[in-house]
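Person: I keep going back and forth on a fold encoding question. Show me how you would write down a chain together with its backbone fold. Please set it down just below, with no commentary around it:
Helper:
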Amino acid sequence: MDLYRNALEVPKPSQRFSFSHPVKSNTIFWTIFWTIYTQKHGLQRINEVAVADKFPLFEKIHNLTKRECKTSNNTTITITITSQIYQIPIMSTITSITLLIVLLISAAAAGRLGEPDDETRRLATSGVNLGTAGDFAILSKTGVTTTGVTSVTGDMGTSPIASTAITGFGLTMDSTNKFSTSASVEGNIYAASYTSPTPSKMTTAISDMETAFVDAAGRLNPDHIDLGAGNLEGETLEAGLYKWGTTVHFSSSLTFDGSSTDIWVLQIAQNLEVGDGAQVTLSGGALWKNIYWQVSGAADFGSSAHVEGVFIVKEGIAFKTGSSLNGAALAQTAVTLDATTIVN
C-alpha cells in the first residue's frame, strides 16, 4: 500500500518517498501516483529534475525520480522517489489499477477527492490565535476563587463579572483603580468593574477567548479520532490535531513529544479529568504554549496533578489541592484553585 500511504502524505519543502511495491519507471504507477498526489494537495508540477531510464524485464532496479512542484502559495517543493524492485509489467499494471480503485473509493468516502487540502491541513495544526486572551494566566467570565496558599505568575482577569467574584486573593486596588494586586499573584488583576479602559480591555479579552474556542473546536481533518476511547493514560502524543467525542482522562501520566515549533490541538467534546498526582510531561523541546486543550465541558485537575498547555474551556476549571499548571486557564465560567501554582 505504498502508493496509497505516500499519496496521502502532506508535502514538505524537501520530500522523499521510497517504494517497495513492484513498479516500473514511466508506467501507469507513476501516472497514478502523480495524478493523485498533485490533485489531492493542490500542487502544480513545474519541472522534472531527473528521471531514470527504463529498465529490463525481471531485473532488480533502482529507480530515481526528482520532480519540482509549486504549492498554492507559490512555495516550491522538491520530491524525490526511489524504488528497488523486481518487476513483471502486467502484474504491476493490475496491482496499480487495484490500488487506484482503493484510493479513489477512500478519497470519495472522505469527501476530499479533487479538493486541494494542503492549506486546510496546515491550518488544522497551526497555533490557535488567542488574541488578548493570551495576555492572561487566568481568564474567567464568572469569577476566580482560591483557598490555601496559591501562587499565580501572570495576569488574571474577569468579565463581565465584577471584582467581587475574585475571592481569596486579598486584593489591593492600585491608585489608578484600573487594576488590583495580590501577594498571591505576580502580575496584575483586572475586572470589568474597574476604571476605564479596563472594562473595554476585559470585554475584548473575553471575546478573544470565545473566538479562540470556536477556532480550536472548528479545526477539520483530525490526525487522530477518539484515541484510546478517551483514556490517555501513559500515552505519548506527537504533534497534530486530536478529536474526541467523549470525556478524556488519564490517571498518572501523559507525554507530549515534539520540537519547540510543533503544535498540538486537542478537541474534547465532553469533560477533561486528570487524576490525583497525574503528571503531564513535555519532551523533545515541546512547549506548553503550543498545546491547546479545547474542552467543551469542564476541566478537573486532581490533587497534586501537574498539567501543561493552554486550556480553553467552555465550562469551569477546577484545580484541586496542590495541583499546578504551566500555561493558561481560560474559562467561560469560573476557575477555582486550592493551593495551586500556575506559571504563565
